Backbone:
């Protein structure tokens, strides 16, 4: 009877050990499965680089500096409001828009001012998400809207001419072709 009770307890200990190993293996499997799903949910965000090259004639804007704003807009209603403005309207009301739309996820403004004949380095803009619209306003003295909608997420060359400007599409750029980061 002594041998059989010892065998019984030995078998019971083996079963408990096997049960613990099974539970440990199951816990490890759940952990591995959970880590697999968490790793798969990671989103890789690659930002796009857009280059704006600007050329200005020596007699632009009656030989006076030209203020230029490039707006990255991510709100459809705001785009509708802005697309009816002339550059004169925009520059008059810009500060109020900055106060009304402080979130750069909705409106980002890049402001520059250049003098006629100035050599202007290429400006590189890092886009974390493509805006719904990219709008350019140039504050000329001459009459006209002096507004253009650029192709969002695409590089462009801006020609600031005597009385107005023109936009020319550019190939995509990288750090080697456009060295200046715009802030």
Residues:
């Amino acid at each position: 009877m002594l041998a059989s009770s010892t065998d019984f307890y030995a078998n019971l200990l083996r079963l408990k050990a096997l049960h613990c190993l099974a539970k440990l293996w199951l816990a490890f499997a759940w952990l591995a499965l959970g880590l697999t799903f968490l790793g798969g949910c990671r989103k890789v965000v690659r930002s796009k680089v857009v280059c704006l090259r600007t050329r200005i004639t020596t007699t632009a804007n009656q030989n006076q500096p030209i203020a230029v704003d490039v707006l990255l807009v991510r709100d459809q209603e705001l785009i509708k409001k802005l697309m009816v403005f002339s550059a004169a309207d925009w520059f008059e009301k810009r500060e109020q828009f900055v106060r009304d739309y402080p979130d750069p996820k909705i409106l980002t403004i890049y402001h520059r001012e250049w003098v006629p004949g100035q050599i202007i380095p290429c400006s590189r803009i890092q886009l974390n998400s493509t805006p719904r619209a990219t709008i350019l306003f140039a504050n000329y003295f001459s009459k006209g809207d002096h507004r253009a909608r650029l192709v969002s997420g695409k590089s462009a060359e801006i020609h600031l001419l005597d009385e107005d400007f023109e936009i020319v599409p550019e190939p995509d750029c990288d750090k080697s072709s456009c060295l200046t980061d715009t802030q």
